[in-house]
Amino acid sequence: MLEDSLFAGMDALAEGLPDVALRWLRTPAERARAAEGVVAGTQAIIADREQSADSWRWVRAEWQALQRHRDGVTLDAAGLPPALLALVKMLPDMSMKASDAGWLDATRKVHVATAAAYGIVLARNPRDPAQRLAGGRLWQRLHLWATARGIAMQPLNQMPERADREATTGLDPRFGRLLAELVGNDAWQALMPFRLGYPLNEAQPSPRRPVEDVLVA
Q1: Contact, 119 vs 21, CB < 8 A?
Q2: Number of Cβ within a 10 Å radius of residue 193
Q3: Relative to the CA of 78, which of 7, 60, 61, 87 has its CA 20 to 30 Å away?
Q4: Tens of pLDDT along 58-72?
Q5: Mapping DSSP to helix (H, G, I), strand (E, B) and coil, where does residue 33 land?
Q6: DSSP string, 105-157
Q7: What is the pLDDT of residues 77-135, one digit of tens each?
Q8: C-beta neighbour count of 179 within 10 angstroms
Q9: C-alpha 69: how far from its chain's center?
Q10: In sequence order, what are the residues at sequence separation of 6 or more whose Cβ sits closer than 8 angstroms to the Cβ of residue 92?
Q11: In a 10 Å sphere around its CB, with 0-12 CB exposed, 13-18 middle and 19+ buried, how is residue 197 labelled?
Q12: Ramachandran angles phi, psi of 119, nearest 5°
């Protein structure tokens, strides 16, 4: 259970960033609706072969790929219990199909099942690069603030990814409507949903590139 004072503290982190804000989903009905959308978004991405393949490119299932790219989705950062992590690492490298199945299973049984609350980073115009950058700054503030207080957070981008896919391919805006419903304010749009709560397991560090590889001269 997350205390009300924690949400007030996180809301204060948006000060000085006028084009971004936070929306919290804390009631049982709000959490259930968000969980439904996250699972449905995961299923829709997996069913979309092109989008699934694009996501798969970020999975670093091989040690060599992890060392070469120093980014992406890894087993170490998945928050698996130590015994399960060791077992999974002994198995053959995952296929895209196996990765998708594992992602959906974890989304349904762990990610949404254990979320104490959900948040959404909002922007007035998510397609404005400056506002997207401001949203990233807010997320950095949130994540550092929460980590210092023993709170874990995880982005859950399935719904916005599907909403973007709908917009670019002319599909029925199912997830666009759902995000608008969750936001509940026409002045704001969803930039990045996430879950938060007190962690039960400790994840290993995620990969990082050397500073000299990311500095712009």
Answers
A1: no
A2: 25
A3: 7
A4: 888 777 888 888 888
A5: helix
A6: HHIIIIITTS-SEEEEEEES-TT-HHHHHHHHHHHHHHHHHHHHTT-EEEE--
A7: 776 677 777 777 777 777 888 888 888 998 999 899 999 999 999 999 999 999 999 99
A8: 22
A9: 20
A10: none
A11: middle
A12: -125, 160
Q: For the chain, where are the E strands, in sequence order?
A: 20-25, 117-123, 152-155, 189-197
Q: DSSP state, 203? A: P
Q: How far apart are CA 159 and CA 154, in angstroms?
A: 14
Q: Which amino acid is at 60?
A: R
Amino acid 140 reads Q
Q: How far is 20 from 132, CA to CA, in rounded Å?
A: 9
49-56 vs 28-47: helix axis angle to the nearest 10?
Answer: 100
Let me know the angle formed at the C-alpha of 183 by 181 and 188, rounded to the nearest 5 degrees.
125
- Residue 82 is which amino acid? P
User: By the 8 A CB rule, do 182 and 23 touch?
Assistant: yes
Amino acid, single-letter form, for residue 115:
A
Q: Can you say how many angstroms the Cα of residue 215 is from the centroid of all Cα atoms in its chain? A: 25
pTM of the model: 0.89
The one-letter code for the residue type at 92 is P
Q: Are 191 and 120 in contact (CB under 8 A)?
A: yes
CB distance 134 to 123 below 8 Å:
yes
Q: Given the structure tokens 């709170």, which residue do they identify?
A: 151
